[in-house]
Automatic annotation (TrEMBL):
Assigned protein family: Belongs to the small GTPase superfamily. Arf family.
Primary location class: Golgi
SMART domains: ARF (SM00177)
Name recorded for this polypeptide: ADP-ribosylation factor 1
Entry keyword set: ER-Golgi transport, Golgi apparatus, GTP-binding, Lipoprotein, Myristate, Nucleotide-binding, Protein transport, Transport
SUPFAM superfamilies reported in the protein's UniProt record: P-loop containing nucleoside triphosphate hydrolases
Gene3D superfamilies the record matches: P-loop containing nucleotide triphosphate hydrolases (3.40.50.300)
Top-level taxon of the source organism: Eukaryota
Length: 124
């Protein structure tokens, strides 16, 4: 099974270079999108990129797991705020889940991956 995980940091690449990394050769069952919850200035850019990616044919049926990372920082947006900023409620015909995480401590990672694993298992 193939999977793609993309981080908001990838969006810092120059546009043509970033697009070459985002080329998806086959239809994928799931997408993990990692958002820097502390980066309020670029959350709109993250939303635009996420929506562009989800419009790709290869991700048409993919379930979406959003990791709201860096929850350990004092000014981090919580999962509900990230949900609103990314426009996740507008994804009415897509199975999605947002998980608050802290990659440095591992908090939330297993819970998110467990959700994704269950969703992919149920698709078979």
């Amino acid at each position: 099974m193939e999977m793609v995980a993309l981080s908001q940091d990838l969006l810092q690449l120059e546009e043509p270079l970033a697009r070459s990394y985002l080329t998806i050769p086959v239809s994928l069952p799931g997408l993990i999108f990692v958002v820097d919850s502390n980066d309020r200035e670029r959350v709109n850019e993250a939303r635009e990129e996420l929506m562009r990616m989800l419009a790709e044919d290869e991700l048409r049926d993919a379930v979406l797991l959003v990791f709201a990372n860096k929850q350990d920082l004092p000014n981090a947006m919580n999962a509900a705020e990230i949900t609103d900023k990314l426009g996740l409620h507008s994804l009415r015909h897509r199975n999605w889940y947002i998980q608050a995480t802290c990659a440095t401590s591992g908090d939330g990672l297993y819970e998110g991956l467990d959700w994704l694993s269950n969703q992919l298992r149920n698709q078979k």
